[in-house]
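Researcher: Here's a chain I'd like modeled. Treat it as a single chain, no partners, no ligands.
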Amino acid sequence: MENKKNIIAIIENIRAAKELSVEEKAQFDALTLQDWADLLNDGEKVTDLADKAAKNKTLQIKKEKCAEFLAMDKEAMFTAFIDNPFFVSKRIVMDKKTNAYKVADVKKQLNFYDLNRAFQLKHSKELDANGTPILNKAVTVANDGKFDLYLRMFLDNIAQSIADDIKIASPALTDLQAQKKAESGMNGIGLAKMEEQLRKVCAAICPESVLPKMLKEDVKFIKISAANVKYDAIQVFNEKNMVNSIFAAIKTRKEGGKYKMTSKAVCHRVKKEG
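Model: Modeled as a single isolated chain. Structure tokens:
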């Protein structure tokens, strides 16, 4: 790394909360993730700054991926998003073979809520005191602005259905959320009723032209994916995980409805020949 001595001095100034000059800030901002990996390999104690740099790189790549989707017309965008909502990010990891830090690729799923947020920023009509665009919540990239309400109420029904299976109480909605649920027509935890609800959620998110007909098997898949067991307690996932699961179900249904299943169990391991 060129000018390592200068970089260390800049980092020391940051640690001491000293204001950087324009030139120093430019040098610091120009550091690549490989530069940070090299500093770590040299024994410099910069893990926090390296992690922050990797996080900022991820945010930048995510922003670029959102812009790529939003540059398309609506139908093409949803088709592309359903087909491949993933992007390749970067992080700094320890190579177990060499015991050295390196920059590695990380596959991440772009969440629909993040895409919607990027759309609202793109259509911002006002700035905050720092000149940063404010979300325009009057617009949405979704097909219907009520998609979030329908999704949250469907998530509540998924939780109720899981709880009903083992005769326990489901987490309760607030009075306001319960009122909204009644008004939205999203009550009921029977499988046929939840099939209708899933179709309603999907139609609120995506244009009809890109949607397959969602079935009871898709409800079951989402229900299975919603539960995380911690010893004797079940934790239901959040809205962002729910929408990821819904898009996985949409893609699977479009491609014939064949979900995949794997196992870590010893009884399912195939013996290697030889």
